[in-house]
Amino acid sequence: MFLFKLSKEWPDLAAAEVKYLLGLKRMRVLDGYVIADFSAKKLRLAKRLALTKCIYRILFECDERDLFRRFERFDWKSVVKGSFCIKAFKHRLEKELAKFVWIKLKNPRVDLENPDTKIVVLKIGKRCFCCIELLKIKHAFTERRPDKRPGFHPSTLKPKLALALVNLCGAKKCVLDPFCGVGGILIEAGLVGLRVVGYDIDPRMIKKAKMNLDFYGIKNYRLVVGDARKIKRKYRYVVSDLPYGLSTFNIEREKLYLDFLINLGRILLKRAVIVFPHFVNYKKLIKKARLKLRGEFEVYVHKNLRRRICIIEQH
């Protein structure tokens, strides 16, 4: 079993990201953590997670009163490779627990700064989880802030949320953004190795998207000046943040959204993650388009805007 420590910003969204990216059938969500079983072969894929901080392998769980007994009985030779250290939810426990590990090893070595094996003891609710830290996930999101790109637009998604949406759809090879704007979603998808396809009706946005993709060294992309309502090619995965400032093109917002969703029903093979502004009756539009709403999440932007993130599939 494995334990995922989630980011505190959007815990429900973070848990769903783990579920859909790794294709989990069952999982437990406990106080900012996800507990699930998955193939260790997917650990490389798990590095993509935007809203997970750490991944641990669970050795055992117990009540706090049984912690010393479980440490004493555990076969530490089977899991400790090289040097080790222990990090516990109570600092005073660390030295006491380390003694049980020390006496079980043939040539024990403690390294508090850079251990080969990091043993972590967490308390979640009323239960203690003894784990090995497998992966600490780090992304250079700050370096990819929208204001640091050569092609800027104020309404583009921030990198962390953009990557979370890509992961939420579960794409492994290719993803389409039919309202790509300056390419915020495409950048994050491209950087994790996906082939990216972007459409936008505004040629100025496509020009900026190309500047941004080239700036980050992304090669495997296709950009099209085109109408999202008229895309013909089918795609397994679609991710998009719908435009809500439509005065430039004099288009009635809900009609655009509905026409797009109807076309999405024609081209979608697997799953879409679509972001609506909160002031739109997105459930009605999704129902009218004869699509299925599998899940939804809300992300606060500012007092006048909240994003509604919708997982959409075919009926």
Molecular structure report:
It is built from nine helices and 14 strands. Helix 6 (184-191) links the parallel strand 8 and strand 9 (195-200). Helix 1 packs across helix 5, helix 3 (67-73) packs parallel to helix 4 and helix 5 packs across helix 6. It has 315 residues and is α/β, with parallel strands linked by helices. The longest helix has 15 residues, at 253-267. It has two domains: 2-136, VC0802-like; 142-314, Vaccinia Virus protein VP39 (Rossmann fold, 3-Layer(aba) Sandwich).
Characterize the largest beta sheet: strand count, sense, and whether it forms a barrel. Answer: 7 strands, mixed
Strand order, sheet with most strands: 2-3-1-4-7-6-5
Radius of gyration: 23 Å
Q: Strand-and-helix sequence, N→C?
A: EHEEHEHEHEEHEHEHEEHEHEE
Quantity of strands, as a count: 14
What is the rounded distance between the termini? 33 Å
Proportion of residues in helical segments: 25-40%
Number of helices: 9
* % residues in beta strands: 25-35%
Briefly characterize the structure.
The chain is α/β, with parallel strands linked by helices and 315 residues long. The protein has helices spanning 11-22, 43-46, 67-73, 93-102, 159-169, 184-191, 203-215, 253-267, 282-288, and strands spanning 2-6, 28-30, 33-36, 52-63, 84-88, 117-124, 127-136, 174-177, 195-200, 221-225, 235-241, 268-277, 291-302, 305-314.
